[in-house]
Amino acid sequence: MAWFKRKSKGIQTPTESKRDIPKGLWYKSPTGKIVDTEELQENFYVSPEDDYHVRIGSKEYFEILFDDKFKEINSKLSSKDPLKFVDNKKYSDRLKEAKNKTNLRDAIRTAVGKSMGEDIVIACMDFSFIGGSMGSVVGEKIARAIDYSLKKRIPLIIISKSGGARMMEAALSLMQLAKTSAKLAQLAKEKIPYISLCTDPTTGGTTASFAMLGDINISEPGALIGFAGPRVVKDTTGKDLPEGFQKAEFVLDHGFLDFISHRKDLKTKINLYLDLVLNRPIREISA
Q1: How confident is the model at residue 18 (pLDDT cuts 50, 70, 90)?
Q2: Does position 137 have pLDDT exceeding 70, yes or no?
Q3: CA 214 to CA 194: how far, in whole Å?
Q4: β 259-260/216-219 pair status
Q5: Residues 6+ apart with CB under 8 A from 272
Q6: How wide is the angle at C-alpha 107 spanned by C-alphas 106 and 111, nearest 5°?
Q7: pTM value?
């Protein structure tokens, strides 16, 4: 069995000299394009070769849309476990894990600041926190953000990124659909603009409530937007579904969106729209 034995040890590297390649230096898009993470960040977290919009969280959206400083509001709200829900593990344990992993208190953050010199309120969901699921805290923070907009009479932006209602809160989660919709009706009555930005993914109860109730509904390219998943829709309707029927471009073609914007243009386009509806002087934007 000598042929089975390695005769030469080849190149050997002392253990103390081995070094792991640092993680996070490169990002690979779904189409296989490789981009340096620093370049990705400078390009608004969009892959320059294939224009793929990488999922980002509230921190990144706040940096993109606010001018400089912003003030987070209602930051101490946190979910409880009133139903003592247990699936594979306790809901209370899942909450602790999510908080430790993400350094977030729940699946949404709300903040106020200036965007292109004008006051604005932004509520942004975080998919990293239990799939951006909508529970009582998400609904309450959106309601309070709307109250702030009403009190200060400044526009509201909600950035949706969600897998839907949070099953661990059952009916309490579903109540948030009606709650947020009712609060947005108050905002509309006072003629204060509300812009809904749908990002990848915007699904379930989020789509069935505040995400589709904007005075203007916009999206990023390629975002998944829908209510139920393709398999459920197909089983329910008994029909074959068009390819990409839940992508932002398909949704736009069928009248559920007003426009799709590249992430680098979001700040400019949102503010130009607000200038128009609020009858503010239209600013000249440099290219």
Answers
A1: very low
A2: yes
A3: 5
A4: parallel
A5: 282, 283, 285
A6: 85
A7: 0.88
